[in-house]
Design brief:
With 471 residues, the protein is mainly alpha-helical. The chain folds into three domains: 4-232, no CATH class; 347-407, Muramoyl-pentapeptide Carboxypeptidase, domain 1; 414-468, no CATH class. It is 50% helix and 4% strand. It has helices at residues 4-7, 20-24, 29-48, 53-60, 67-74, 83-90, 93-105, 107-117, 121-132, 143-153, 157-173, 196-202, 220-232, 264-269, 303-311, 315-328, 347-359, 373-385, 396-407, 414-426, 440-452, 463-468, and strands at residues 141-142, 182-183, 242-246, 273-274, 287-289, 298-301. A four-stranded antiparallel sheet has the order 4-3-6-5. Strands 1-2 form a two-stranded antiparallel ribbon. Helix 6 runs parallel beside helix 16 (315-328) and helix 11 (157-173) crosses helix 12. The chain is globular and about 90 Å long. The termini are far apart.
Length: 471
Amino acid sequence: MRSIFFAALVALTGVYALPAAAQSAGVTVEQRQAFERWKANFRGKALSQGIRADVFDTAFAGVTPNPTILNFDRKQPEFSRPIWKYLDSAVSASRVKNGREKLAKHRDLLRRIEQAYGVDGNVVLGIWGLESAYGFGYGDFSIIRSLSTLAFDGRRQKFAEEQLVGALKIIQNGDVPASGMLGSWAGAMGHVQFIPTSFNALAVDFNGDGRRDIWSEDPTDALASAANYLKKSGWRTGQPAFIPVNVPRSVDAFDLRRNNKLSAAEWRAKGVTTQDGRPVPDFGPAAVIIPAGANGPAFMTFHNFGVIKKYNNATSYALGVAHLGNRIAGGGPLNVSWPKDDRPLGRTEKKTLQTSLTQMGFDTNGVDGILGPDSRAAIRNFQRSRGLPADGYASEKLLARVEDAVAGRESLGRDTVRLIQARLNERGFNAGTPDGLAGPQTRAAITAFQQAFGYAPDGKPSAALLQALGG
């Protein structure tokens, strides 16, 4: 299980793998000296938490900070990956094919895991497929070195030191030697990318060899450990995580969010149906979400969707795991249409959006490029003020609309256009009948007015134009 802070920075499998030489370059003498001071201090902390001195000294022998890891940790992704591209990769034809081959190979094992933990085997395969491409690549970074580097740097010190103690406990318990404890740059390990504290709490020795081994070529312990994680998180056997649904336009987009859970009867009363028009199934309280905004598909998410998100708290991840598992089990592709002409925003664009919204009085409570609850509320309030669906989706088109509003050039409602036409007619610029539609005659009148009074001619109705006309 990966923690949220680095889940957004790792690749689809959660792994970065670089040659050892690249991982060792660029450490200065000063950094080595400072690292040794940190290590001495941390040694005392580890020993006070039950780590034996010989275990610590063996695990840390020759360990130095890895500058490559610092670069990864400090890197902020500039562009958001559209959810449709994520799902195209997560549930690619090759990943489905490989998953079905793994199902055939490990069918008996998965059946025993289902019996032991009550977790559907296809979902376990979905996690395995997304986390490490079925063990193809779970990272070749030394977990001790990775976490030591993060702790030494200080930005993630509390998390990294907690995970380091957890890793040392794993070594001390005899599950794996330090040399075999490999994984991602940020400390996630093995086939199913557990962090050390999750391993200690939830990993199991399913094959009975006396070790909990999630690194072995044999994935038995890893798959059973993932199932145990889902079981302890409340998995309900035989229930889906989500289904695509049809939502009438009469339903307020604000109701389509993850924390608005209603009964099946309530959703049916609103007119929500399955894709083929049948009543939505009843698996308890459910939310309907629109991860790509009101112009994208809608999904009804059930209890197990939230369970998957406890493994990795990302909507795209939960959709990917559940859909991949369904495809492996023989299900078909999602029959949905994504708004591919309206991409999500990158980090810098999100900052611009936050700045512009706040400037207009829709306070985002800070400008950091992270769209939390306050920013989503500001987006929804802006959307409501313009008669748009209040879906809170930050997209390229939304940003353009907000920037137009700030500059006074956004598209206006018919009543406002009608007023502009009347004002133009009063000033002698023939805009035609005031009908609220900015047709060729109205645009020509606007251009003539703008040229006559020294404004940049664009022929578009706007709040700034109305102000210039005395409206």
